[in-house]
C-alpha cells in the first residue's frame, strides 16, 4: 500500500482512466451531498486564507504502486462518489464556459481533454471515467453526444448534473472563485497492489461501521471483489445485474436489504439483526462452503420471488391481488415462509391454487389475530419454521394443521373472530380501510376503489345528539352511542361525508347522494331501514361479520386429521391421577378435569403434563397453569399476575400474598363444565405471556 496527499484535480488529470468495478454499488449521492460539496467549493474559493480542503481518500488497485503509469486504468475501490460528482460539476462547467475562458488552469478545452476524455483513444478507453451499467451509459451519452441515451437512465446522475447546471447559472459571476475552490480540493491517494494488499479486508475495515455502504453493497463486494476481472463481469451480468434490475434504482438498497434478511432467515431458520445482515451472510457462506455461482443462481431465483411478493411484480392476476392484500396488512414477517412456498410452487411441488390458498391463509391468520388483539411478538419466529418437517405431499393440509395446533400461531376460531369483529372499536383500528375495501369488493368482479371514499359514522360522533337522534336511539341513547359508535355496524363508506354531517338517519338516507342512491354494497342494507337504533346496528354488524367469516376463513380440518398431525404429548408421570388424586377418579370433578385437560392440551402440541403429589402441572418451558383437584371443583393457578389478565367476568383472584400449591400468583376456580370456554381464555393468556417472553 502507498498513500500520499494530492490535489484532486491533479489526480484526475494525470490518471489515464478510472474504472468502477462491476461489484461496486451504483452512483448514489443525493442532492444533499452535492449541495454540501458545492457550498464547500464556494466557501474555500472565496476565502484566500483557506489553502486546502480535504474531501476524503480515493483507494484503487494498481499493479505497480511505486511507478504508476499514466497509460493504465485505475480500478477504484473507494472514492467513486467523489470522482463521479466532480466529473458532473466539470461537465456543467464545460457547458457554461466560453472557448476563450480560462480560470486557474481550467478552461473549456482542458476540461474536455484532461478530465472527461482521452482524445487520442478509441472505444471505452476514450472516456476518463467508466462507471458500471446504466450509470456508465448515461454518463457517456452526456459527454459524447454521438452516443445514444440508454432506455433506463441513471436517475442520480441526471438529477445531480441538473443541480450543478442550476447552481452555475445562479453563480455566473463567481466562476473564477468556483475554479479556485476546485483547485483547493485535496485527497489522500491510496494505491493498493495485488497480491501484497487484500482489497476486501481493506474495504471492510474502511466501512466497518456499516454507514458508508449498505448491507447489500457489502454483500455484492464480498461475492465479486476477489474474482478475476472477466469472471467478475460474467457473474455480475448473468446474475447480480438482473437482480438489480428487478429491484430498480430508487428502492434498491432498502428492499434488497430486507430481501437479504428474509433470504438468510429462510436458509438458516434464524433471523439476522437488521444491522448485521452482512455478518450473517458471511457466516452462512463460509460455514456451508457454497460455490459462488450456485449461490448467485439461488439468490437470483429468490429475489424474483421477493419482488413478485413485495414489489408488485407478480404476473398472475390472482396471486398479484393476494400479494397486494398482504402488503396492505404489512405482513413482512411472513416473507421468509412465503419465499419457500413460492419456490415450491415454481418447482411444481404445490399447485397454484394451493399456493394462493396459503397466501390467503396467512392474510386470514394475521387479520383475525389483529381483530382479536392477539400478541404479534412471536410471529417472526413462527413463520420461518412453519414449513419445517412438513409432508409436502399434503402441503396445504400440513400448513393448516400447524396453524390450528400451535398456540404461537393460534388461529382465532369463527366464534372468537366474529364476536370481536362485531364489538371492538374498528374505527380506530389501523387496518380500517383494508377491511372496508375487502367487505365492499367481496365477490365483486368489478373492483371498487374505496380510496376515493371516507368513513362515515351512521350514528354521528357528536356528543350532543340532536333530539331526533335521541328519539331514534331511545332513552338509553348515550349508552348506545358510547357502546356502538366505532363498531362495525355503525361504520360505512361515503363520498358525501361533509354533506351528511350530524343529520338524522332518514335525511342521510333520502338526500341527494344519500344511502338510497349509493352504489356501494356496504350501503345496500341501509335503503330499507326506517329507524337507526341499537337493533339496526346489531343486525348490520351481524350481517357484515358473516361476510367477514367468508373472506377471512379459518381452516376446517376434522379431529381425525388434526390428531394425525399432532405429536404425542410427553407425559411425565411421577405420580398418577388414580393413586394420588382420588377426586379425579369419578363423578363431577373427573368430568370437569377430563374436559378441561383436553382443551389445555389443544392449545399447543409442545405442552407437557406432569402429575405431582398435590397438583397436575402443564408447561412449555415452565408451568403456565396448575390444576389442584378439590372435592367439588378444580382450583387453577395461573402463572400470570392478576393485573395482566383480561378477565371481564372477574373470575380470578390474586394469591400472591397467601400460601399456595401452584406456581402462579393468580387463582381461578372451575365449578361448572359450561365455564370451560371462558376459563380457557384465561389459561391461554398465561401461556401467551410465557411465549411472548
TrEMBL record:
<dbReference type="InterPro" id="IPR043714">
    <property type="entry name" value="DUF5655"/>
</dbReference>
<dbReference type="InterPro" id="IPR011089">
    <property type="entry name" value="GmrSD_C"/>
</dbReference>
<feature type="domain" description="DUF5655">
    <location>
        <begin position="588"/>
        <end position="686"/>
    </location>
</feature>
<dbReference type="InterPro" id="IPR004919">
    <property type="entry name" value="GmrSD_N"/>
</dbReference>
<dbReference type="Pfam" id="PF07510">
    <property type="entry name" value="GmrSD_C"/>
</dbReference>
<dbReference type="Pfam" id="PF18899">
    <property type="entry name" value="DUF5655"/>
</dbReference>
<dbReference type="Pfam" id="PF03235">
    <property type="entry name" value="GmrSD_N"/>
</dbReference>
<feature type="domain" description="GmrSD restriction endonucleases C-terminal">
    <location>
        <begin position="412"/>
        <end position="546"/>
    </location>
</feature>
<protein>
    <recommendedName>
        <fullName>DUF262 domain-containing protein</fullName>
    </recommendedName>
</protein>
<feature type="domain" description="GmrSD restriction endonucleases N-terminal">
    <location>
        <begin position="14"/>
        <end position="223"/>
    </location>
</feature>
Amino acid at each position: 500500500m502507498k498513500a500520499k496527499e494530492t490535489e484532486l484535480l491533479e489526480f484526475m488529470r494525470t490518471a489515464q482512466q478510472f474504472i468502477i468495478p462491476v461489484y461496486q454499488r451504483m452512483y448514489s449521492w443525493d442532492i444533499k451531498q452535492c449541495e454540501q460539496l458545492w457550498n464547500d467549493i464556494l466557501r474555500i474559493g472565496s476565502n484566500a486564507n483557506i489553502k486546502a480542503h480535504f474531501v476524503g481518500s480515493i483507494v484503487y488497485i494498481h499493479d505497480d504502486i511505486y511507478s504508476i503509469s499514466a497509460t493504465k486504468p485505475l480500478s477504484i475501490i473507494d472514492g467513486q462518489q467523489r470522482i463521479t460528482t466532480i466529473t458532473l460539476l466539470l461537465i456543467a462547467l464545460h457547458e457554461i464556459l466560453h472557448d476563450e475562458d480560462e480560470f486557474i488552469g481550467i478552461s473549456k478545452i482542458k476540461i474536455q481533454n484532461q478530465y472527461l476524455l482521452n482524445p487520442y483513444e478509441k472505444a471505452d478507453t476514450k472516456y476518463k471515467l467508466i462507471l458500471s451499467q446504466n450509470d456508465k451509459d448515461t454518463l457517456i451519452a452526456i459527454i459524447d453526444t454521438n452516443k445514444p441515451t440508454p432506455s433506463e437512465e441513471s436517475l442520480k446522475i441526471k438529477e445531480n448534473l441538473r443541480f450543478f447546471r442550476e447552481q452555475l447559472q445562479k453563480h455566473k459571476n463567481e466562476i473564477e472563485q468556483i475554479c479556485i475552490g476546485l483547485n483547493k480540493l485535496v485527497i489522500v491517494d491510496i494505491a493498493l497492489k495485488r497480491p501484497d494488499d487484500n482489497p476486501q479486508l481493506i474495504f471492510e475495515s474502511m466501512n466497518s461501521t456499516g454507514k458508508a455502504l449498505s448491507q447489500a453493497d457489502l454483500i455484492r463486494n464480498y461475492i465479486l471483489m476477489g474474482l478475476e476481472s472477466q469472471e467478475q463481469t460474467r457473474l455480475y451480468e448473468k446474475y447480480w445485474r438482473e437482480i438489480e434490475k428487478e429491484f430498480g434504482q430508487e428502492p434498491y438498497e432498502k428492499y434488497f436489504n430486507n430481501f437479504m434478511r428474509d433470504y438468510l432467515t429462510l436458509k438458516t431458520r434464524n433471523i439476522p439483526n437488521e444491522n448485521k445482515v452482512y455478518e450473517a451472510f458471511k457466516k452462512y457462506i463460509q460455514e456451508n462452503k457454497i460455490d459462488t455461482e450456485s449461490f448467485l443462481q439461488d439468490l437470483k431465483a429468490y429475489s424474483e420471488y421477493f419482488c413478485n411478493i413485495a414489489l408488485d411484480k407478480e404476473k398472475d392476476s390472482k396471486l398479484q391481488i393476494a400479494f397486494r392484500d398482504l402488503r396492505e396488512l404489512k405482513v413482512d414477517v411472513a416473507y421468509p415462509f412465503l419465499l419457500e412456498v413460492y419456490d415450491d410452487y415454481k418447482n411444481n411441488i404445490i399447485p397454484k391454487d394451493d399456493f394462493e390458498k396459503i397466501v390467503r391463509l396467512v392474510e386470514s391468520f394475521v387479520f383475525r389475530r389483529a381483530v382479536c388483539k392477539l400478541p404479534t411478538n412471536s410471529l417472526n419466529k413462527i413463520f420461518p419454521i412453519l414449513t419445517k418437517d412438513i409432508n409436502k405431499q399434503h402441503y396445504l393440509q400440513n400448513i393448516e394443521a400447524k396453524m390450528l395446533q400451535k398456540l404461537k400461531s393460534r388461529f382465532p376460531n369463527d366464534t372468537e373472530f366474529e364476536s370481536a369483529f362485531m364489538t371492538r372499536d374498528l374505527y380506530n383500528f389501523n387496518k380500517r380501510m383494508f377491511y372496508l375495501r375487502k367487505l365492499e369488493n367481496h365477490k365483486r368482479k368489478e373492483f371498487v376503489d374505496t380510496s376515493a371514499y371516507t368513513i362515515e359514522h351512521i350514528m354521528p360522533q357528536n356528543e350532543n345528539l340532536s333530539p331526533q337522534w335521541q328519539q331514534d336511539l331511545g332513552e338509553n341513547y348515550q349508552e348506545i352511542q358510547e357502546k356502538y359508535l366505532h363498531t362495525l355496524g355503525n361504520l360505512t363508506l361515503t363520498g358525501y361525508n361533509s354533506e351528511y354531517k350530524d343529520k338524522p338517519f332518514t335525511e342521510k338516507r333520502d338526500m341527494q347522494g344519500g344511502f338510497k342512491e349509493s352504489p356501494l354494497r356496504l350501503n345496500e342494507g341501509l335503503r330499507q331501514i326506517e329507524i337507526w337504533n341499537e337493533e339496526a346496528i346489531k343486525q348490520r354488524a351481524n350481517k357484515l361479520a358473516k361476510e367477514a367469516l367468508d373472506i377471512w376463513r379459518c381452516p376446517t380440518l376434522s379431529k381425525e386429521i388434526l390428531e394425525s398431525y399432532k405429536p404425542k404429548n410427553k407425559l411425565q408421570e411421577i405420580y398418577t391421577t388414580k393413586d394420588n388424586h382420588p377426586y379425579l377418579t369419578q363423578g363431577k370433578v373427573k368430568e370437569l378435569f377430563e374436559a378441561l385437560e383436553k382443551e389445555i392440551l389443544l392449545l399447543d402440541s409442545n405442552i407437557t403434563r406432569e402429575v405431582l403429589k398435590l397438583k397436575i402441572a402443564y408447561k412449555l418451558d415452565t408451568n403456565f397453569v396448575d390444576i389442584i383437584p378439590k372435592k367439588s371443583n378444580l382450583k387453577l393457578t395461573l402463572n400470570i399476575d392478576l393485573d395482566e389478565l383480561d378477565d371481564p367476568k372477574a373470575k380470578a383472584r390474586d394469591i400472591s400474598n397467601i400460601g399456595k400449591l401452584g406456581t402462579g400468583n393468580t387463582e381461578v376456580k372451575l365449578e361448572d363444565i359450561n365455564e370451560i370456554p371462558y376459563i380457557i381464555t384465561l389459561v391461554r393468556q398465561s401461556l401467551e405471556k410465557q411465549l411472548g417472553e
